[in-house]
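Design request, tokens follow.
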């Protein structure tokens, strides 16, 4: 198991760096190009293990997916050209791969099995399985260990007998979830009848943007989306798309720049879709030094360079519609809160309990290890900002990439070297995280 030894920064972080390509958009671009007709090109692909899991899953269904230097060529099989996989599809740590594939596999005329690693095999799947079953899908899974009526992987998707189709669906979700929404829309491409999804507040809308650009008959109104395939020819043209940089990965570097005195960091080409910018908005409210310099569009998504430097931080209240727009950045937001003046309260974030780890519990342990006062709420955290240097800590990531990276950022503000254990998981989303921080001037040793 690999550990990081992170030394407190004695000099500023400086430089201009890229981040991996957007993980969410990467999954969607791979899956949709596999359903298109012809050869698609996905440029700027610099992804972690999660996106590679999606690529491998599509290959297992007979789609040619060739990844070469920062570029993927996918030869689409068309909506009805996927072939039965010969073995269980291993989604690794990737919840997005598994949940979106459920939507794609449910309408197929063949059987498939989806498995994942220990963390993914504990994550609740009924939120996708239940609406899919309501429209006629046949999916079985393992009962969840502690949540009655929930299911976990391995999941068996039995497919549909010849001549049977998925029906119309009206779904009103209790929590905003782009994975659920996207799975239902993917299944809706094959359904006989419309798909209507309403979220409490709008979650990331990359799937909707991409489907619209491919001519799929889809309408959106705020948190409502409706896909009606009636009269559609079920053909999507191959496309050429350049991926934006991942806003969630960029958040770690922005936070690091806030925590190390004198820093000047630019993160280039980051996606700034408003459904993903909650972290930037909260950081600005907290007083962070941050300028967003728009750089046009990539593949129908806004892109910007982010310039960050340290400024005195004040506590914030984070809840409501901001939560889905910052859902993956809430751990690293805790790092800002740890260094802010006053008490930060995060609420409406019970979803964090079912991410790669229970992020409310893991972050509470990590923050306390660094000497930061933290109270765990059922749906959030209360964090007491600490203005004196953080304590050197030894913390475990619990296999959660975003917890590992947040701990590394916190360690930069420590009063001695800190050890972050179990960091191989960082490769799921940001394989060059350590290299990028080192390039900016951080001192980090890797211990095996
Ligand atoms: C994602 C949606 C979010 C997010 C995840 C990626 C996506 O999950 O946390 O990292 O790409 O659709 P939920 O849909 O469970 O909120």
């Amino acid at each position: 198991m690999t550990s990081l030894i992170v030394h407190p920064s004695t000099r500023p972080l400086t430089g201009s760096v890229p981040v991996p390509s957007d993980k969410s958009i990467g999954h969607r671009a791979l899956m949709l190009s596999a359903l298109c007709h012809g050869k698609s090109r996905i440029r700027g692909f610099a992804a972690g293990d999660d996106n590679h899991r999606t690529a491998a899953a599509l290959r297992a269904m007979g789609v040619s997916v060739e990844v070469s230097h920062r570029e993927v060529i996918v030869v689409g099989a068309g909506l009805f050209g996927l072939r039965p996989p010969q073995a269980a599809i291993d989604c690794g740590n990737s919840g997005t791969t598994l949940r979106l594939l459920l939507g794609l596999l449910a309408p197929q005329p063949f059987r498939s099995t989806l498995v994942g690693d220990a963390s993914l095999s504990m994550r609740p799947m009924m939120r996708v399985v239940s609406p899919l079953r309501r429209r006629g899908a046949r999916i079985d899974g393992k009962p969840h260990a502690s949540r009655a009526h929930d299911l976990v992987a391995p999941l068996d998707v039995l497919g549909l007998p010849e001549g049977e189709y998925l029906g119309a669906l009206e779904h009103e979700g209790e929590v905003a979830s782009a994975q659920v929404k996207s799975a239902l829309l993917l299944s809706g491409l094959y359904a006989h009848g419309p798909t209507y999804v309403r979220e409490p507040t709008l979650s990331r809308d990359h799937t909707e943007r991409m489907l619209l650009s491919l001519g799929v008959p889809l309408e959106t109104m705020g948190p409502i989306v409706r896909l009606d395939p009636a009269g559609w020819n079920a053909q999507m043209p191959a496309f050429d798309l350049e991926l934006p940089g991942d806003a969630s990965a960029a958040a770690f570097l922005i936070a690091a720049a806030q925590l190390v005195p004198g820093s000047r960091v630019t993160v280039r080409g980051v996606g700034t879709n408003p459904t993903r910018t909650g972290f930037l908005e909260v950081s600005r409210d907290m007083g962070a030094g941050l300028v967003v310099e728009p750089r046009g569009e990539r593949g129908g998504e806004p892109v910007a360079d982010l310039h960050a430097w340290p400024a005195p931080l004040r506590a914030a209240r984070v809840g409501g519609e901001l939560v889905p727009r910052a859902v993956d950045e809430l751990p690293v937001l805790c790092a800002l809160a740890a260094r802010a003046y006053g008490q930060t309260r995060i609420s409406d974030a019970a979803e964090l309990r079912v991410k790669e780890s229970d992020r409310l519990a893991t972050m509470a342990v990590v923050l306390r290890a660094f000497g930061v006062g933290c109270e765990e709420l059922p749906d959030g955290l209360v964090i007491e900002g600490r203005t004196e240097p953080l304590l050197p800590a030894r913390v475990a990531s619990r296999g959660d990439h975003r917890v590992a990276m947040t701990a590394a950022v916190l360690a930069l503000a420590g009063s001695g070297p800190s050890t972050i254990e179990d960091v191989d998981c960082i490769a799921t989303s940001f394989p060059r995280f350590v290299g990028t921080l080192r390039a900016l001037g951080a001192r980090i040793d890797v211990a095996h």
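Comment from the thread starter after seeing the answer: thanks! The chain has two domains: 3-21+244-447, 23-231.
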